[in-house]
Amino acid sequence: MNILNSLNLKITAHLPVKIVKNKANRPLASISFDDFAKSAWQVGGKILDKYGVKGTYYAVGGFCGKVAEGVQQYDEDDLRELVAQGHELGSHTNKHTSVYTASDAALRKEEADNKAFFNEVLGDYQVSTFAYPFGDISPRTKKLYSELYPLSRGIRQGLNGKWFDMAQLKAVPIEARLWTPEFIENWVRHAKETNSWLCLFTHDICENPTPWGATPEMLDHAMAMLKKYEIEVHTVKAAMALTQFDE
Ligand SMILES: [Zn+2]
């Protein structure tokens, strides 16, 4: 990462754009899959099913039916199935574009293209949330996406506590490259103790995952921890709504 990009990340993390109060008064969790690999739905979806929870799939329209960086991506049937079963489909740009490299007009077009693709496959489908590819974000693009979507998820590690920024939801990775059972359990426990919203994210789910993906056991372990600490799991869209209700 060059110096300008890391400076962008640092500045943007402390730039409030859409700060809201979390009114949920109880811990919440979400699980999200980026890009997304076919295994995230075919394997990961079954694990969510086992725990009776719904996830959020951040799809890159241009990846449909393709192999990206050696990983088989979702296809149209996967999209139809997961939406029919109550999971959320979110946007992750149409070409997996780093937002640093594109103009506002180009990024807006990508979102229009992604929505058009979703509607082509699913009929009328309202996309409510977005995830930044590579977690790349800048003051300019944080503002841009806050106009396009009610909520955008980044990859800055952390919980979303009493006050949080809907333009850059914090998240915690379930990734083979840094996974330990304690890492996940500590975040889950911390969410429980602070009534925060924990948004997990990962990529492919298979026995030999990419460094950014997880094995079925790792995903199962995260779900088991959420169950152990009695934390409700909702799609990002549904959890967002719960944080904004007056109870
Ligand atoms: Zn991605």
Model description:
The chain has 247 residues and is of the alpha/beta class. The chain has a single domain, classed as TIM Barrel. Helices cover 39% and strands 20% of the residues. The protein is built from 9 helices and 12 strands. It has helices at residues 3-13, 38-42, 44-50, 76-84, 104-122, 139-148, 181-194, 216-228, 236-244; strands at residues 19-21, 28-35, 56-59, 67-68, 71-72, 88-91, 129-131, 151-157, 163-165, 169-173, 197-202, 232-233. The strands form 3 sheets. Strands 2, 3, 6, 7, 8, 10, 11 and 12 form an 8-stranded parallel β-sheet that branches. Strands 1-9 form a two-stranded antiparallel sheet. β10, α7 and β11 (197-202) form a beta-alpha-beta unit. α7 runs parallel beside α8. The relative contact order is 0.22. The mean pLDDT is 95. It binds zinc ion. Residues 34-35, 92, 96, 133 line the site of zinc ion. Zinc ion binds next to β2.
Topology:
Blueprint lengths: L2 H11 L5 E3 L6 E8 L2 H5 L1 H7 L5 E4 L7 E2 L2 E2 L3 H9 L3 E4 L12 H19 L6 E3 L7 H10 L2 E7 L5 E3 L3 E5 L7 H14 L2 E6 L13 H13 L3 E2 L2 H9 L3
Parallel strand pairs: 2-3, 2-11, 2-12, 3-6, 7-8, 8-10, 10-11
Antiparallel strand pairs: 1-9, 4-5
Helix pairs in contact: 7-8
Bound molecules: zinc ion.
Summarize the entry for a quick read.
Helices cover 39% and strands 20% of the residues.
Please estimate the helix content: 25-40%
CATH architecture: Alpha-Beta Barrel
| Euclidean distance between termini CA atoms | 43 Å
Q: Secondary-structure element order, as H and E?
A: HEEHHEEEHEHEHEEEHEHEH
Let me know the CATH homologous superfamily. Answer: Glycoside hydrolase/deacetylase
Rg for CA atoms: 17 Å
Instruction: Provide the structure class.
Output: alpha/beta
CATH fold name: TIM Barrel
The shape is: globular
Low-confidence stretches: none
Helix segment tally: 9
Q: Can you summarize the main beta sheet?
A: 8 strands, parallel
CATH top level is: Alpha Beta
Strand content: 15-25%
Q: How many distinct domains? A: 1
**Bound small molecules, which ones?**
zinc ion
User: Average pLDDT, to the nearest integer?
Assistant: 95
Secondary structure: number of strands: 12
